[in-house]
Design goal:
Its EC number is 6.2.1.5. Pathway: Carbohydrate metabolism; tricarboxylic acid cycle; succinate from succinyl-CoA (ligase route): step 1/1. Pfam families: CoA_binding, Ligase_CoA. The protein folds into two domains: 118 residues, NAD(P)-binding Rossmann-like Domain (Rossmann fold, 3-Layer(aba) Sandwich), CATH 3.40.50; 146 residues, Succinyl-CoA synthetase domains (Rossmann fold), CATH 3.40.50.261. It has nine helices and 14 strands. Helix 7 runs parallel beside helix 8.
Length: 296
């Protein structure tokens, strides 16, 4: 089993024929993802060819998400469109009734995200992102930009705000493998949260240990700690990026702003440890803590 994404998932790509969409659709196909279509109103009725091994794979292009679903039975959409068009693409996918929308685009205006997030919630559609690397269930399906060859299937579940730290943790624990890894993004408003992923991993019989990567700013990690204390029985290992960040300065991700002691790495570490989470001071130390649990 895996969370949110399985080998049965049928994926469409909004923005498939653009440069980023083309590059990452090629990668997703190579990793075994069942990409069943793309969406581009100007190229509806055509197909796009992607190099795979010695030959190519042709993927049909549809004029709308609704057309793509009707023709293919797609149940996941991944969005590679510019920030100015992201809101429209998400709302189109939500209106079409697709249950999972993965938004890779960074630089989406927060007001747009707030609007389409509320809209998706009302319609019961799960969003992952924006400004995220997507998610992968190794050996089954890969939606987004996470490299598929870092690791294979295993018993670790990973949820992370940071794309690069997602890749590093997968590499550090590659000999154990992952049930799923979910990059939720670091914007101030995101669709799927740490808590959503923790609940899914808790319910997943193929996940034995959960690794949670957060970062300074906001209170998402503190809220996740409360949820872990109340609802998670599986061992959780954590890392909070930004221990050396100066107070009051906006760092990298749009959500990472620290004010006084609120949102600091130390405050988040203490909240997680109070919930029974083992927290590493570096990614490698965090991986070592997970390794101890997996080897026990």
């Amino acid at each position: 089993m895996a969370i949110f994404l399985t080998e049965a998932s049928k994926v469409i790509v909004q923005g498939m024929t653009g440069s980023e969409g083309t590059k990452h659709t090629t990668r997703m196909l190579a990793s075994g993802t069942n990409v069943v279509g793309g969406v581009n109103p100007r190229k509806a009725g055509t197909s796009a060819s992607f190099p795979q091994g010695e030959g190519t794979v042709d993927v049909p292009v549809f004029g709308s998400v609704t057309e793509a679903i009707e023709a293919t039975g797609a149940d996941v959409s991944v969005i590679f469109v510019p920030p100015a068009h992201t809101k429209g693409a998400v709302i189109e996918a939500v209106d079409a009734g697709i249950p999972l929308v993965v938004i890779i685009t960074e630089g989406v205006p927060v007001a747009d995200t707030a609007e389409f997030f509320a809209y998706a919630q009302d319609k019961g559609v799960r969003l992952i992102g924006p400004n995220c690397p997507g998610l992968i269930s190794p050996g089954k399906s890969n939606v987004g930009i996470i490299p598929a060859d870092i690791t294979g299937p295993g018993r670790v579940g990973l949820v992370s705000k940071s794309g690069t730290l997602t890749y590093q943790m997968m590499y550090e624990l590659r000999d154990f493998g992952f049930s799923s890894a979910v990059g939720i993004g670091g914007d101030p408003i995101i669709g799927t949260t740490h808590i959503d992923a923790l609940a899914a991993f808790e319910a997943d019989p193929d996940t034995d240990v959960i690794v949670m990567i957060g970062e300074i700013g906001g209170d998402a990690e503190e809220r996740a700690a409360e949820f872990i204390k109340a609802h998670v029985t599986k061992p959780v290992v954590g890392y909070v990026a930004g221990f050396t960040a100066p107070e009051g300065k906006t760092m990298g991700h749009a959500g990472a702003i620290v004010s006084g002691s609120s949102g600091t790495a130390q405050a988040k570490k203490e909240a997680l440890e109070a919930a029974g989470v083992k927290v590493g001071k570096t990614p490698s130390e965090t991986a070592a803590l997970a390794r101890e649990l997996l080897s026990a």
